[in-house]
Specification:
By secondary structure, this protein is of the alpha+beta class. The protein is built from 14 helices and 13 strands. The structure holds adenosine-5'-triphosphate and magnesium ion (3 copies). It comes from Azomonas macrocytogenes (Azotobacter macrocytogenes).
Length: 474
């Protein structure tokens, strides 16, 4: 089955179970300052869980655009290194707002995954985790569904804080949360890794495909767990991961959609399509960047815009590593639109805009990228030990526009680490300089705004942190 067919089958299955099909919401969360980007299907339903909003339905299903590149769920640094993490992915979900609870949720998930009419997965490849003391879920799985105890795992709060377990899901530091049960797929003994909870769980053999969360609490800012008005269900299954399973491949990058993006990335860069991690990073990043721009984010020096800038620059650096000459990233948008434009019309509608924004950002960064890399090489030659000092990280950041995670990415490839406290000290010193400079009316690190008539005089400063838009009073 192709990914587009799997997406459709999921939505149809839950429609047959009385769910209303709801379109994906924007990647920019509406009215939720606690969230950087939409990171799960449940975000747009947050107020339904909290009982603050009533809709015409109590069951919903969706395929939601998600970005996990900052905030509580941040996978940026995993991308290119694991088989299963993307910055952008689609989350298939079914939701109950005070309607059904654990029993139906578990039975639906099992039916969709294993029934011949639907995905027809072999039952003995599926492993199940439940929250440590959730006997109710454990009993439904073992006594009703018939999963043998040998493939059931209880996961507790073993991360040093209450409710810090992988089986207690929370959208962020505050908001709806609850115990969950997760379904893993065993990709086979040839791949290194162990079942969840085992010492080898970080391997890629057992891959988490679907999380079913039993929403029961609202966590407040002071850590209090208030019961929700009604027990609810929120589930999420990564479309790319379940596609890999159904297409009999191991890594997400081998699925139909990514094959085409990898090919297009290699053509744009002018390198071989040989599975290099950097190529995967590029193929991954074109999705998050394009979708973020389509939803209205623009590269900038703060907040969401800075996260976008970091992702674009990371992609540029990986392309450069593969030998790209000149701007290449914006060229991959065409292939992305061909792959995903039917399901997400915003890509088609905004193709030209996305390409313009990417090209502009690439050209701007190209001016300092090569130079910054050269400087870094020189510094590394003289490096004593394995820690890149704070002043080097700062110089790359401030003069050459290298976001810290980009420098960290390079460090990781060479088994080096960063002196982050040292970098923070340099940043603080710079803020101090800026504060004293602002006495003279110039704080070069912030957008300079002047009241009254203004005239845009162009991009006045291409210092590493990006361009600074200067508006002068006429
Ligand atoms: P993992 O442990 O693999 O990082 P997770 O536990 O953080 O995943 P959840 O928050 O439970 O993920 O999200 C629900 C589902 O969304 C996961 O079971 C997985 O299928 C999918 N998913 C989560 N993060 C990613 C990602 N970065 N890329 C692709 N799919 C993802
Ligand atoms: Mg995760
Ligand atoms: Mg997990
Ligand atoms: Mg999970």
């Amino acid at each position: 089955m192709k990914s587009a067919e799997i997406r459709e089958a999921f939505l149809r299955f839950f429609e047959e179970k009385g769910h209303t099909r709801v379109a994906s919401s924007s990647l920019i969360p509406a009215n939720d300052p606690t969230l950087l980007f939409t990171n799960a299907g449940m975000n747009q339903f947050k107020d339904c869980f909290l009982g603050l909003e009533k809709r015409s339905y109590t069951r919903a299903t969706s395929s939601q655009k998600c970005v996990r590149a900052g905030g509580k769920h941040n996978d940026l640094e995993n991308v290119g290194y694991t088989a299963r993490h993307h910055t952008f992915f689609e989350m298939l979900g079914n939701f109950s707002f005070g309607d059904y609870f654990k029993r139906d949720a578990i039975h639906y998930a099992w039916e969709f995954l294993t029934a011949k009419k639907w995905l027809g997965l072999p039952q003995d490849k599926l492993w199940i985790t439940v929250y440590a003391n959730d006997d109710e879920a454990y009993d439904i799985w073992t006594k009703e569904v018939g999963v043998p105890a040998g493939r059931m795992i209880r996961i507790g709060d073993n991360k040093g804080a209450p409710y810090a377990s992988d089986n207690f899901w929370a959208m962020g530091d505050t908001g709806p949360c609850g115990p969950c049960t997760e379904i893993f797929y065993d990709h086979g003994a040839e791949i290194w890794g162990g079942p969840p909870g085992s010492p080898e769980e970080d391997g890629d053999r057992y891959i988490e495909i679907w999380n079913n969360v039993f929403m029961q609490f609202n966590r407040t800012a002071d850590g209090e767990m208030q019961p929700l008005p009604a027990p609810s269900v929120d589930t999420g299954m990564g479309l790319e991961r379940i596609s890999a399973v159904l297409q009999h491949v191991h890594a997400n990058y081998e699925i139909d959609l990514f094959q085409n993006l990898l090919k297009a990335s290699a053509v744009a860069i002018g390198c071989a399509n040989d599975g290099a991690p950097s190529l995967k990073v590029v193929a991954d990043h074109i999705r998050s960047c394009s979708f973020l721009i389509a939803d209205g984010v623009l590269p900038s020096n703060e907040g969401r815009g800075y996260v976008l800038r970091r992702i674009i620059r990371r992609a540029c650096r990986h392309g450069n590593k593969l030998g790209a000459k000149g701007a290449f990233f914006y060229k991959i948008v065409t292939a992305l639109v061909a792959e995903m434009g039917d399901a997400y019309s915003e890509l088609q509608q905004q193709q030209a805009h996305i390409q313009r924004v990417l090209l502009n950002e690439e050209e701007q960064f190209a001016k300092t990228l090569e130079q910054g890399l050269r400087i870094l090489e020189q510094d590394l030659v003289q490096l004593q030990g394995s820690v890149i000092p704070g002043d080097v990280i700062f110089k790359l950041y401030d003069t050459y526009g290298f976001p810290v995670d980009l420098t960290n990415d390079i460090a990781r490839e060479r088994n080096l680490t960063l002196d982050e406290p040292g970098f923070e000290r340099e940043m603080e010193a710079q803020r101090e300089r800026a504060r004293s400079a602002s006495v003279f009316g110039m704080d070069y690190n912030s957008l300079v705004k002047v009241e009254g008539e203004t005239r845009f005089t162009g991009y006045a400063d291409t210092r590493g942190t990006g361009t600074i838009l200067v508006l002068f009073k006429d």
